[in-house]
Specification:
CATH architecture of the largest domain: Orthogonal Bundle
CATH topology of the largest domain: MetI-like fold
Radius of gyration: 23 Å
Number of helices: 12
Number of domains: 2
Mean pLDDT: 85
Shape: globular
CATH class of the largest domain: Mainly Alpha
Order of helices and strands: HHHHHHHHHHHH
């Protein structure tokens, strides 16, 4: 029989209040008119709940922002998986430690330190103000962590399984796709979520490498909404809520695989 733990209960309630209060303020504000929000304050309930704020955001090019961000996120995830999975496999099976250390070195390089050479390369490739200008550097900066996660996941695969595939005469490519990839699903799922979050939340590259409205992504659009809806706080917060719904849905679907993948980062 479990004994009640009032200290843990109070701690959980306090933590719930800390997490829940900002969410309450955020959601209530999106259902309020500008006048009722100013009169009732951040904690006051709306006298007449309305969805007009969400309609205002959707009518101001929000669908274009979401579409561009989805394109960037999907392509970044595809590039990262296409490159990171074979690299991690080579590191685990061939002992390519210099390659692994080179990727780990990328963890110590911030985006801000590379923005000038990245800008010059994108300009000389005639990719400035295109979605490709966002996709390529974003995928590059997602690679080091992705390789680290996949190496830790692939190291947990039993050596006996590799030997069994070798006895069957399987090639390296067959071992990769028929053995390693299925047994590394947790790590791959983690990489998918991490890469999509990196692309979804990216701000520096869209800010520096794009300028037209047709190539804006969500983060840059929210930044511009601060000026457009700088006084209309409910509309601005409605844009924030709408921008977080897709990535939150992805997290809910894959949260268990995400935790399992992160647990294997350390490897053996």
């Amino acid at each position: 029989m479990r004994r009640p733990n009032p200290v843990a209960g109070l701690g959980s309630a306090g933590w719930l209040a800390i997490v829940g209060l900002p969410l309450y303020v955020l959601l209530v504000a999106t259902l309020s008119t500008q006048s009722s929000y100013l009169d009732g304050g951040a904690l006051g309930l709306p006298t007449r709940p309305t969805l007009a704020n969400y309609l205002t955001v959707l009518r101001n090019g929000f669908t274009t922002l979401v579409t561009n961000t989805l394109i960037v996120a999907v392509v970044v995830v595809a590039i990262v998986l296409l490159l990171a999975v074979p690299v991690a496999y080579v590191v685990v099976r061939r002992g390519a430690r210099p390659v692994f250390r080179l990727f780990l070195l990328g963890l110590a390089i911030p985006q801000q330190a590379t923005i000038i050479p990245v800008y010059l390369m994108i300009s000389r490739l005639n990719l400035y103000d295109t979605l490709a200008a966002i996709i390529l550097p974003t995928a590059a900066f997602a690679m080091p962590v992705s390789v680290l996660i996949l190496v830790g996941s692939m190291r947990d695969i039993s050596e006996d399984l590799y030997e069994a595939m070798a006895l069957d005469g399987a090639s390296s490519a067959r071992v990769l796709w028929q053995l390693v990839v299925p047994l590394s699903r947790a790590g791959i799922t983690t990489v998918v979520i991490y890469s999509s979050l990196t692309a979804w939340n990216g701000f520096l590259f869209p800010l520096i490498l794009t300028q037209s409205d047709s190539n804006r992504v969500l983060t840059l659009g929210l930044f511009n909404y601060v000026g457009e809806f700088g006084i209309d706080i409910p509309a601005l917060l409605s844009a924030v809520v709408l921008s977080g719904v897709p990535i939150f849905a992805v997290y809910l679907v894959a949260r268990r695989a995400l935790v399992n993948g992160l647990m294997g980062v350390g490897g053996r």
